[in-house]
UniProtKB/TrEMBL annotation:
Cross-referenced SUPFAM superfamilies: WD40 repeat-like (SSF50978)
PROSITE patterns, per the entry: WD_REPEATS_1, WD_REPEATS_2, WD_REPEATS_REGION
The UniProt record lists the keyword Repeat: yes
WD repeats: 199-240, 241-282, 283-324, 325-366, 408-448
UniProt organism field: Psilopogon haemacephalus (coppersmith barbet)
Keywords, in A-Z order: Repeat, WD repeat
Protein's GO biological process: mRNA splicing, via spliceosome
One cellular component (GO) term of this entry: catalytic step 2 spliceosome
PANTHER family: PLEIOTROPIC REGULATOR 1, WD40 REPEAT PROTEINPRL1/PRL2-RELATED
SMART domains: WD40 (SM00320)
Full protein name: Pleiotropic regulator 1
InterPro entries: Prp46/PLRG1-like, WD40/YVTN_repeat-like_dom_sf, WD40_PAC1, WD40_repeat_CS, WD40_repeat_dom_sf, WD40_rpt
């Protein structure tokens, strides 16, 4: 049976509970300990004002104030530059002189002029440091001095010299003072890129793009199930190839033979003979949509990656599946090949990147630094490095072991594609239609582009699925969700004066992992 109470009793109980809850003084600051506070203030005093403590204090003023300790609330003695020594300078005014000609100089008749306080202070700042103080500094060079003067002959400038000069003159703008080096090198200047051509012709999203080795034409694959070949110079359509029964997700042109390879969401991998414009080989084996493919640069090997969580290595001629690279736990979104070890690199929706041993068909290294799907990987054409793109960051890595170099932060979108040229321009294209251009070495984002969609398209159809530089690296082609191919080129009229690098070392911080 529930016992009934009056409203007065219930309100009182509620008040008591509230009081008990807040009566504890956990949040109150602890009482100040005088001794520790004095020590703390003394340390701060030495740290903050150590460089000016050697400067003279007028003894007149000290006498009036009642000795050195009266002005110090913490009872510390006045510090000179070297503890235990007298103040190095004492400004005493003029020598005693008689009040007029012919008057004898005695204790009663002498006259002595004292400088004003402001004049004394300005004189104190201009005075050089004593030899004893400079010697003390010279013998006790700090770690910072050693780093600053590394490689400089000691006789030409002793390690403590710059410190002594600053303490002596008190002038922080002294030419001898070592300037702190910026945290990052200044990025290389790159001219901005501008849109100069929009090519339309596909009836669906343009999902992939590749330029042929001779730089005469390029090829695109689309969600309209066709592969189209375009003239690079004019942007005119040369040829359409049909055969896939679903979205074409990857195309690549062989530099070793007149073949074009394509793959799609219909699980098919096709080899097209460009002399007859017909499919001459199929590569069967993937159990789901094939998302990407790449050719090995020196041997006749094709590598494909799929939604079935595997990558497969095919012999181009015999159509045999040489290896099935299993290990990823989700769809493999991108694959790249190179002649040097590791010869195969894959990025997956399981957030990992794997570097593979081509001969053994096994993983050499698994990189687990990304926190979201890795949809794009690109290899630098000259350096032994590569980059990977994910919604959390673009990361740069060093071959062969996948050592982390740096993060390129700022492209906060789903990154579908990466491309890099020999000049060190890295391009990242995202699902929301934005394209960022970066300096490879420093990770500086020097340009951001968001091109308008084709007239008649929805703004939501603004997305970049693939981008690639042509063989001359003077043109950048992007495959987009508004069914167009956009072509960019460097702005020839731009100079470093008209488009300066708005770079500040404190902004570009290398975040580790």
């Amino acid at each position: 049976e529930v016992q009934k109470h009056s409203v007065h009793t219930l309100v009182f109980r509620s008040l008591k509970r509230t009081h008990d809850m807040f009566v504890a003084d956990n949040a109150k600051p602890i009482p100040l300990d005088e001794e520790s506070h004095k020590v703390k203030m003394a340390v701060k005093l030495r740290t903050e004002y150590g460089s000016v403590l050697h400067m003279p204090t007028l003894k007149e003023n000290l006498r009036e104030k009642g000795g050195p300790n009266t002005g110090d609330p913490y009872g510390h003695k006045q510090y000179s530059g070297n503890q235990g020594q007298e103040l190095e300078y004492l400004i005493t005014g003029t020598h005693p002189y008689p009040p007029g000609p012919g008057v004898a100089l005695t204790a009663d008749t002498k006259v002595q002029r004292m400088p004003s306080e402001s004049a004394a202070q300005s004189l104190a700042v201009a005075l050089p440091a004593s030899q004893a103080r400079m010697d003390a500094n010279r013998t006790a060079a700090g770690v910072g001095d050693i780093y600053r003067h590394a490689g400089i002959s000691e006789r030409s400038q002793p390690p403590g010299m710059s410190v002594a000069m600053v303490e002596a003159g008190g002038n922080k703008n002294s030419a001898l003072m070592a300037k702190k080096a910026p945290t990052m090198p200044k990025p290389q200047w790159h001219p901005p890129w501008k849109l100069y051509r929009v090519i339309s012709g596909h009836l669906g999203w343009v999902r992939c793009i590749a330029v042929e080795p001779g730089n005469q034409w390029f090829v695109t694959g689309s969600a309209d199930r066709t592969i189209k070949i375009w003239d690079l110079a004019s942007g005119k359509l040369k040829l359409s190839l049909t055969g896939h029964i679903s979205t074409v997700r990857g195309v690549i042109v062989s530099a070793r033979s007149p073949y074009l390879f394509s793959c799609g969401e219909d699980k098919q991998v096709k080899c097209w003979d460009l002399e007859y414009n017909k499919v001459i080989r199929h590569y069967h084996g993937h159990l789901s949509a094939v998302y990407g493919l790449d050719l090995h640069p020196t041997i006749d090997v094709l590598v494909t990656c799929s939604r079935d969580s595997t990558a497969r290595i095919w012999d181009v001629r015999t159509k045999a599946s040489v290896h099935t690279l299993s290990g990823h736990t989700n769809a493999v979104a991108t694959v790249k090949c190179q002649a040097a070890e590791p010869q195969i690199i894959t990025g997956s929706h399981d957030t990992t990147i794997r570097l593979w041993d081509l001969v053994a068909g096994k993983t050499r290294v698994t990189l687990t630094n990304h926190k979201k799907s890795v949809r794009a990987v690109v290899l630098h054409p000259r350096h032994y490095t590569f980059a990977s793109g994910s919604p959390d960051n673009i990361k740069q890595w060093k071959f062969p072991d996948g050592n982390f170099i740096q993060n390129l932060s700022g492209h906060n979108a789903i990154i579908n594609t990466l491309a890099v040229n020999s000049d060190g321009v890295l391009v990242s294209g995202a699902d929301n239609g934005t394209m960022h251009l970066w300096d490879w070495r420093t990770g500086y984002n020097f340009q951001r582009v968001h091109a308008a969609v084709q007239p008649g398209s929805l703004d939501s159809e603004s997305g970049i699925f693939a981008c690639v530089f042509d063989q001359s690296e003077s043109r950048l082609l992007t495959a987009e969700a508004d069914k167009t191919i956009k072509v960019y080129k460097e702005d020839d009229t731009a100079t470093e004066e008209t488009h300066p690098v708005s770079w500040k070392p404190e902004i570009i911080k290398r975040k580790r992992f």
